[in-house]
Amino acid sequence: xxxxxxxxxxxxxxxxxxxxxxxxxxxxxxxxxxxxxxxxxxxxxxxxxxxxxxxxxxxxxxxxxxxxxxxxxxxxxxxxxxxxxxxxxxxxxxxxxxxxxxxxxxxxxxxxxxxxxxxxxxxxxxxxxxxxxxxxxxxxxxxxxxxxxxxxxxxxxxxxxxxxxxxxxxxxxxxxxxx
Length: 179
Prior knowledge:
Blueprint: H1 2-34, E1 43-47, E2 56-61, H2 67-70, H3 78-86, H4 93-100, H5 106-113, E3 116-117, H6 127-130, H7 138-146, H8 153-160, H9 166-173
Parallel strand pairs: 2-3
Antiparallel strand pairs: 1-2
């Protein structure tokens, strides 16, 4: 009889904890999606991969986002959050792909990339990391690299504006690492 009572108490505790976890996850998701100020703190606004889609996704800064922020990514579990956190600081998107690719296939890594970004150091970023910026392709990345060094992020943005739209430039600002 005592064993049954303990089992019921454990089940009740698990139900309460599960309910609290759902409430916390919902609050975190709401907090992340409402922060579109464009600051480099932990999130950056960006358009979805489908350029014809008018909705937007808030991308998370891989170096500053919290574990709770990462849990808002569809299909993300605690194990992958630990892996995301373990390899900080990320200096390039190639590093992210390599490290996270140890645990999931390339398709899943690409899915994660729809929700995260590596801050772009304008004088050090490789072409793949520069291509995280809206509108930047291989050719533009090569031009941006050839234009180094940049005296400041503003100098980089002055060069970038010759290749991308004003809206893309505005989003790109939030991807830049602070200097």
